[in-house]
Amino acid sequence: MDPLSAWGRTKISCMFSTKESKPHAARKRLISNVYSKSYIQSSPEVDELTRVILHQRLLPALELIAAQGLSLEVMELNYGVTMDFISSYLFGLSDDSSFILDVEMRKRFLSWHFRRWEHSFWYQEIPRLTGLLRRFGVHLAPKWIDAANEGIQAHVLRMCRLAEQSIKAASVYGQKSHGTRPVVYGQLSDALRRSAVKPEAQVDIVGLRNHELPVASEMLDHTIAGMDTTGITLTYLLWEMSRNPELQDSLRKELCTLAPSLAIGNDSGLPSARSVDALPLLHSVVMETLRLHCPLPGSQPRLTPSSKPTSLVGSPPLPDGVRVSAQAYSLHRNETVFPNAESWNPQRWLDVDPEKKDEMMRWFWAFGSGGRMCIGSNFAMQGMTSLSRRTKTLLFPFLHLCAS
Predict the structure, then answer these.
(1) How far is CA 383 from the centre of its chain?
(2) What are 100-123's pLDDT values in tens digits?
(3) Burial (CB count <10 Å: 0-12, 13-18, 19+), residue 96
(4) Strand partners, 6
(5) How big is the CA angle at 107 (ends 101 and 108), to the nearest 5 degrees?
(6) In angstroms, rounded to a whole number, what is the distance separating the alpha carbons of residues 171 and 133?
């Protein structure tokens, strides 16, 4: 279990780190509606945060860098953009991370985050042994990882408390926020206050009278997952697109069919989420990037359930509680389903009959599947298409300018 899947040393678990299926499903039901595709596509909060992040943060920042002739670390900026997207949906625009503009805080946070990566094995695979040895002064992972985790946790806890203050100010004093509602934080916080889950599903939740840390633990997991996976995917998408100028032109033509216009300086509004979602080439570019450069390519473990017999293909029935796993990296490179699987080819998602498309989707595992499927998949797709549609209008000319 990753240390960020449970809050600090109190081990307050979140939905992701809940092993048993019933408590996991109960926790998921608390917030699944605000991550549904229909909710996201009709949400005024998503429309507003997309408009503000694109027109008032990202594009001005890129124009300023280009005007000054400075270089740009694209992956770092992508992480900043995706952090702003997910944190503004979780906590509201007035209380989000604002990493696009706050470069110093962005660099500090990412330093904490990236330094933990190479040592994540110990906490993920042998957490009990790692914790036991710590008590005797044996640290399998460096001590400074604790400081990095504490810095990340403190940052998320601060956003939680600001969101809580905004909710109370709106409720008690009728004060309107200068941004958007803290959609996910508000949903989960209200659900815990109402004791919406059944008693047997509360085994991993601290008493509801003090729900701050259970909510913070959940928000921490959503924050890191939303920033990390989408930031990686956008970086690979930009890299692949930069090597395919003809595809850039085709995508630009498709984007020009949207209304209102996506021209720089036009802050009058954004095309509807449904119209963007209906663009076939844009969708295929995102899908192919997720297939070839899946941000979570490694094993995604599951435990066999006790409620019914379980077996793998060709195996005898397995007892309950056995850890099994599959990995997107292998599934996405099945040559029978994805010919020339190592090639980035968005066209494969366009020139295909419905039966073949269904087979491709059956093997597509960027977000997992079943009850443990990524709850934020719809929000991730919305964010990636929102950002990808601006690549040709500003980012690629900027990159060419810096290169020259």
Answers:
(1) 9
(2) 999 999 999 999 999 888 888 887
(3) buried
(4) 13
(5) 115
(6) 48
pLDDT tens for each residue of 238-281: 999 989 989 988 988 888 888 876 666 666 678 888 888 889 99
Both tokens assigned to 255: 């984007």
The amino acid sitting at 230 is: T
The full length of the chain comes to 404
Tell me if the pTM is above 0.90. no
With 90 as the cut, is the pLDDT of residue 15 above it? Answer: no
Confidence class of residue 401 from pLDDT cuts 50, 70 and 90? very low
Which residue matches tokens 């805080």? Answer: 105
* Residues paired with residue 102 on neighbouring β-strands, in sequence order: none
What is 305-317 written as a DSSP string? -SSS-B--TTPPP
**CA–CA separation, 350 vs 332, rounded Å?**
17
Q: Which residue has the higher pLDDT, 402 or 19?
A: 19
- What b/e readout covers 33-69, taking b as 16+ CB neighbours within 10 angstroms? ebbeeebbbebebbbbbbebbbbebbbebbeebbeee
Q: Which amino acid is at 131?
A: G
Please provide the average confidence, as pLDDT, over all residues in the chain: 84
By DSSP bridging, strand 323-327 and strand 299-303 are antiparallel
Do the Cβ atoms of 186 and 171 come closer than 8 Å? no
Around Cβ 267, how many Cβ atoms within 10 Å?
A: 13
- Residue 339 near residue 359 (C-beta atoms within 8 A): no
Place of tokens 């099994």: 324
Residues 6+ apart with CB under 8 A from 92: 45, 163, 166, 177, 179, 180, 181, 182, 183, 185
Tokens of 211: 């729900």
pLDDT at 397 over 50: no
Say if CB 394 and CB 255 are below 8 A apart.
no
Only one residue has tokens 């473990």, namely 301
What DSSP string describes 277-292?
A: HT-HHHHHHHHHHHHH
What is the C-alpha to C-alpha distance for residues 291 and 285, in angstroms, rounded to an integer?
10
Find out whether 378 and 268 touch, Cβ atoms under 8 Å. no
Q: What are phi and psi of 7, to 5 degrees?
A: -80, 105
Quote the pLDDT of residue 123: 79
Residue type (1 letter), 183: V
Task: Give the SS3 label for residue 326.
Answer: strand
